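QA checklist item 7 of 12: single-chain prediction sanity check.
[x] sequence parsed
[x] length recorded as 452
[x] structure emitted
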Amino acid sequence: MRPRRLPFLSALLGAILLGAILLGATACERPFVEARAPEIEIVSPDLSTVLVDSVATLRVRAVSFRSVERVTVNDTPMHFAPERGTWEAGMRFEKGLNALVLSAVDAADVERRDTVFAVYLPFRVSSEAPALEAPLAGHAAVLLADGSLLLTGGVSRADGEARRDAHLLPPGAARFERLDARMVEPRTGHTATLLPDGRVLLLGGSRSDSLSSTASLVEAAEVFDPGARTFAPVPVLGEPIRRAHHTAVPRPAADGVLIDLYGGRGDVRYRPEPRLGIRDDLRGFLFARDTLFALSPAPGPLIEPVTGHTVTPLDAADPIAARRFLVLGSFFDGGFVEQTHFIFDYRPGVGILIDRAAPAAIPRTLHAAVHVAPGMVLLLGGHQGAPASALDVPEVYVEPAGRSFRFPASEELPRKRYAFTATILPSRRILLTGGFTSDGILIESEFFDLDF
């Protein structure tokens, strides 16, 4: 039996088919126009570097398959320069971070809006700085409550033995003076932490610049009293400190001061046979009643193995008051480079959170870093795996921009140096002291002045 035909259904299907054919024909006659926005490219100046002039001509290239009708920066129209094919505007930059909102609109009123950042930081380097009495590197520096600068330990030659000497630079003085009192232990690559009571806690380090075994690690802790100008040993209860080229972060506690030690070269295994390596742990200690208490007999949370790095306050100049700390460092092995870059975020009642951070613009180790403004950290010196690769180009990490900006190449840059110290004095001048160079050890100091 043949199936019955449904006239109404057949007519409906035919109408749908005819409509589809007509729609396809119409589409062929009216080409589809994309809503793709123009592309914007910064031609000059190079905004990946720090600007040292307050006035510059901003040149951008705006490209679209339609004609670009207008381009603005911070809602100010830019003019088109046909000879260069760029849109241009004269800019005056404020000191610090500048946000530039760029807008490009094409003939179909399709807009692209991008925000880019520029950093303007004029600087000056001066060699007329307080002098050391002898070459020095691998020392620690800390600014005391009265504005004096204390230097402890270090070495006076490459592969040399650590020193027990300490030096003091009173406010406004032209030279460092050697203290009569000597440290309890010779040490280099150690940390010096200012305590709330004005004393300074010295932790870790090595007895020699050529750290080749755990036997060279300094386990003893000591404290410097600036009033009496004396050093005194500090008992350590629990597992001692065995690391050098590490960092220390102080935190307030109800019954004392918490000290977190991170990274460094140390005993990655102590029993049954000691083994020297790069530590990947964060160890906490409590300094109370002139005693250092290890908070746990084992390493804390595993993070990343790193040494010769810096941990610098981001949100406040005073480490005790700060909550966020920028961690930057690099590991070099021949042509291999691994960068460490994150933020310690101390949350009361929660613990330590790890936030992402952009890597340094220039991989470096054994560098120095200072907090120059909220959300802004200056990195200086360091090397890239060998003395011959010592660095002179500084950079500044800017948290609101989420990246680092390197300073432009210039004859005015500070000397190439590593294993040195950088300190912001009460005058706001940044003093660079000692350090190794590619061919020796420095006695010279420099001022790196930011006009900021």
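[x] summary fact logged: The domain at 39-120 is CATH 2.60.40.10 (Immunoglobulin-like).
[ ] second reviewer sign-off
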